[in-house]
Amino acid sequence: MKLFLLDAAGAELILLLPGAFVLFLFFWGLAEGFIINLFKINRFWRSVWHAMLVNLVSVIAGFVILNVTDDTDHEDLFNLEADTNHLAAWGIYWLVSVIIEALVLKLLNRSAPWSKIFAASVVMNIITYVFLYFFYFYFN
Predict the structure, then answer these.
(1) Residue 130 located in a structural domain
(2) Is residue 57 part of a domain?
(3) Which of 7, 8, 19, 122 is exposed most, by the fewest CB atoms within 10 A?
(4) Domain count of the fold of the chain
(5) Which residue pairs, CB below 8 angstroms and at least 24 apart, start in 126-133?
């Protein structure tokens, strides 16, 4: 199974299954909103809303990255398979997701300290990517 993945639902999911994308966006919004709330960045439902926005921006960034790069030169990097041979690519996507989501989360919560924002982004993406890796590995 080849995947174009940047974050929670993945960029391909928008085109393939729009309804599934909305469900994944809501599910990850709840999960990551809970994490944002745990870091006391915002109230729960506002955290859910922010998590959904952050993930949407992250997926859009995935589209931009995939369209800007020449995938014939970087096929192994951007065509992810859920196996141990592609862990470096998963790591790069994770790092890009952490940075993008931290920046957007900071824009949405200007009064929150960077340390809390960055820590929440790291935790959110660790949970997301571990779940996705095992999910894709299981169904591969």
Answers:
(1) yes
(2) yes
(3) 19
(4) 1
(5) 126/94, 127/31, 127/32, 127/35, 128/7, 128/8, 128/28, 128/31, 128/32, 128/97, 129/90, 129/93, 129/94, 129/97, 132/5, 132/8, 132/10, 133/82, 133/90
Residue 120 belongs to what domain range? 11-139
Name the DSSP class of 67.
H
Indicate the Cα dihedral angle 126, 56, 116, 37, nearest 10°: -90
Whether 45 is in a domain gets the answer yes
pLDDT in tens, the chain (140 residues): 444 445 544 555 556 667 777 888 888 899 999 999 999 999 999 999 999 999 989 888 877 776 776 554 445 544 555 556 667 777 888 898 999 999 999 999 999 999 999 999 999 999 988 887 777 777 76
**Closest by Cα among 104, 107, 116, 108 to 60:** 104
How far is CA 17 from its chain centroid?
Answer: 17
How many Å from the N-terminal Cα to the C-terminal Cα in the chain?
6
In a domain, 5, yes or no: no
Rounded Cα distance, 42 and 105, in Å:
11
CB 10 within 8 A of CB 4: yes
